[in-house]
Design a protein that fits this description.
Helices cover 56% and strands 3% of the residues. A hairpin with a 2-residue loop joins strand 1 and strand 2. Helix 15 runs antiparallel to helix 16.
Length: 689
């Protein structure tokens, strides 16, 4: 029997005798191997020692738990017995568990012996850990013949996978008709730029914007964190309105999503259409009281408030609709990736487009053009090929307002090949204006400034030659009296404006009505004057570009597509809306869905109403409807008694005519008696005197 077993039989614990410094060696000596053999013998004789002496139970318990300084770890973390402690943790924290054994103080000797055991284990593990570290480092640094690391860390592999995913998704940003241009650099959206407070802080400072606003801790409502809007305490309590988003398909790195309406939401939609047909805004208000987050009701009521010049309420309703949409986003739907698409042909998706557009216009009027530009790029990224709201007619104005000159020139350079942006008057003039503003920057080199100025002159002259009908309306809105040589010249005279095709007249009036404030600057006006004089000289010199541009104007711009008409209606610019064709102005336009596509994809249809609409009713039926709202002369017709109903209708018409004649005579014979005049109005005063 070994000496350690004899000590256990005598009741002595390990660590009570004096320690020998020779035992604390850092290598694997012969004495340590002997101790390992003795430990194997001890395990075989534990049962014998416990049967001979009952006091050895504590020593057996201490032996079984010599690797655990805290006994509660055996209860709470039983799975840790199967795991191995990493060598890094052993070397960095050798004495980390010394203070965790204060909960069990049954025997002070046991506590002292356990601490001494930990010191022995920690000192012996130093040399072994260092050897293991060296071996692991050698294993991870095994290189192949090509010089590349085969045993790379898993973090490097994750980085490589992420790079591959980004490259594969980047391919989805380019469509087949893009000519290989990278759209992400142009339509890249940042989350922080979607918040108008970011721009306001840049202008006025955080203290001026936020003030002493502090979140209230009591009665605080916890809302879902969103990027586009922040919920207000004055809003009704949010509940799921019945809108959800689903992923319809994923193709070439592009995800196609669509919004869906539940059955309850469809019933609310039917009630909303009835309220719109009633032409009474109070019905929409009553519907919103029951359903405070119904999208179309919020959009329609926002237009009513805006017409009544209640801008704050109109903006608040749009933000509430935007918050409702954002809470319904799909987990894979991203605002910044540029690869998420929404089909405008579906009415459920059109409401999201219109909400973003109206919110963007409120931001621009609020004085946040940079934030509005970010929303403009977001709308354009949802369907860059079709561009249902024609955001290309607006993005140049917002870029100039926010002084994002380089981004506008980059967009023009990348999209010119496959979208022919130079054929739009707004891009032809705005890009030239961008070049001019870049040439006027103080931090630019003189050579680069002259180069930008020459490019700006050339681009503005080409724009004036291509679109001569822009000059005179622009000068008129800028309250600038043109020179007599300009007004008398045939190229810029009245003939150039009258001879414009209808679509071109619509585009030029839209651009002039929107951006004339950008041309009012004195330096810009002087630059424009120089370019106009140069264009007149080129016209007198029979420049071939003049005739070529005239032929292009005659062949193109014959009819504008439907999305341009929709954009003009949403812009509400008087100069542009007056140039709309009759087929657009004669049909009713609803604020919640202006000019819907002719090939709309309807997921559900509205059931037919029982009574006939007011447009097909006669004057007689309208008269009785005003007296009795439930009256319907044509609602109960049956095929078998059409003749009887017709005869009764004729008799009723005769009786009504007689009644109307009698009422007319009665109103004509009514005479109102004048009150008696008092010849002496001061008679009473004289009596009192």
């Amino acid at each position: 029997m070994s000496s350690r077993a004899l000590r256990r039989l005598r009741g002595k614990q390990r660590g009570q005798e004096a320690l020998d410094l020779g035992d604390l060696t850092l290598g694997d000596s012969s004495e340590e191997q002997a101790e390992a053999e003795e430990e194997q013998l001890d395990k075989a004789n534990v049962s014998l020692a416990s049967s001979r002496n009952g006091s050895n139970r504590k020593s057996k318990k201490n032996k079984a738990q010599k690797n655990f300084s805290n006994l509660f770890e055996l209860i709470c973390d039983a799975d840790k017995e199967a795991e191995k402690i990493s060598p890094d943790e052993d070397t960095e924290k050798p004495d980390g568990n010394k203070t965790s054994s204060t909960g069990l103080n049954d025997n002070k000797d046991v506590k002292r012996s356990s601490q001494k055991e930990e010191k022995e284990v920690a000192t012996k593990s130093l040399s072994g850990d260092r050897v293991k570290k060296k071996k692991k480092k050698k294993k991870t640094k095994v290189k192949s013949e090509d010089g590349q690391c085969q045993g790379a860390a898993p973090d490097d592999n994750i980085d490589l996978l992420l790079e591959n995913l980004e490259q594969s998704n980047g391919l989805g940003l380019q469509s087949e008709d893009c000519g290989g241009s990278d759209r992400r650099s142009v339509l890249h959206v940042e989350h922080r730029n979607l918040n108008p407070e970011t721009e306001l802080k840049r202008y006025f400072g955080a203290r001026a914007v936020l003030g002493d606003q502090r979140p209230r801790q009591r009665n605080r409502q916890f809302h879902r964190s969103t990027w586009m809007t922040s919920p207000k305490e004055s809003w009704p309590r949010f509940s799921r309105p019945g809108i959800s988003m689903t992923l319809s398909q994923s193709k070439d790195g592009v995800q196609y999503f669509t919004f869906e309406h539940s059955r309850d939401y469809q019933q609310i939609q039917y009630k909303f259409l009835d309220a719109v047909e009633s032409m009474d805004p109070n019905n929409i208000v009553a519907l919103l009281q029951l359903n405070p987050y119904h999208i179309d009701s919020l959009l329609q009521l926002s237009d009513v408030c805006r017409i009544q010049e209640d801008q704050e309420m109109a903006r608040d309703l749009i933000e509430r609709a935007l918050y409702s949409f954002e809470c319904a986003f799909h987990p894979l739907f991203s605002l910044t990736s540029g690869t998420c698409r929404l089909d405008y042909l579906r009415p459920e998706n059109r409401a999201f487009y219109l909400t973003l557009y109206k919110h963007m216009m409120f931001l621009e009027k609020r004085g946040c053009p940079r934030t509005a530009l970010e929303y403009c790029k977001l709308i354009l990224s949802l369907d860059p090929d079709a561009d249902p709201l024609c955001m290309l007619l607006l993005i140049d104005f917002l870029s100039l307002r926010s002084r994002e000159y380089q981004s506008l020139l980059q967009l023009y350079q990348d999209w010119e090949e496959h979208r022919n942006l130079s054929q739009l008057p707004n891009f032809a003039f705005s890009t030239a204006l961008c070049r001019f503003h870049l040439s006027q920057q103080e931090d630019m080199d003189p050579e680069e400034s002259d180069k930008q100025k020459k490019k700006a002159d050339q681009m503005l002259q080409d724009a004036l030659i291509m679109f001569p009908g822009v000059l005179m309306p622009l000068l008129d809105l800028c309250t600038v009296q043109p020179d007599a040589t300009v007004t008398s010249h045939a190229f810029f005279g009245l003939k150039s404006q009258i001879g414009q095709p209808p679509a071109l007249a619509e585009l030029t009036s839209l651009y002039v009505g929107r951006t004339y404030t950008l041309w009012r600057e004195a330096a810009v006006m002087l630059w424009l004057e120089e370019s106009v004089k140069e264009v007149l000289c080129r016209c007198d010199a029979k420049d071939p570009l003049v005739e070529d541009s005239q032929n292009k104007r005659k062949q193109r711009y014959q009819s504008a597509p439907r999305n341009i008409h929709r954009h003009v209606l949403l812009s509400e610019i008087k100069e542009a809306t007056s140039s709309l064709p009759l087929e657009v102005t004669t049909q009713p336009v609803m604020g919640f869905d202006p000019l819907p596509p002719l090939d709309s994809v309807m997921s559900y249809t509205r059931p037919e109403r029982q009574h006939v609409g007011a447009s097909s009713e006669s004057t007689l039926s309208l008269f009785f409807r005003s007296l009795l709202p439930n009256f319907n002369l044509q609602g109960g017709l049956r095929q078998e008694d059409d003749m009887e109903v017709a005869r009764a209708g004729q008799e009723l018409n005769q009786e009504v005519n007689r009644l109307m004649v009698a009422m007319r005579d009665m109103l004509a014979n009514i005479r109102f008696q004048e009150p008696p005049r008092d010849d002496n109005p001061y008679e009473d005063e004289d009596e009192w005197d």
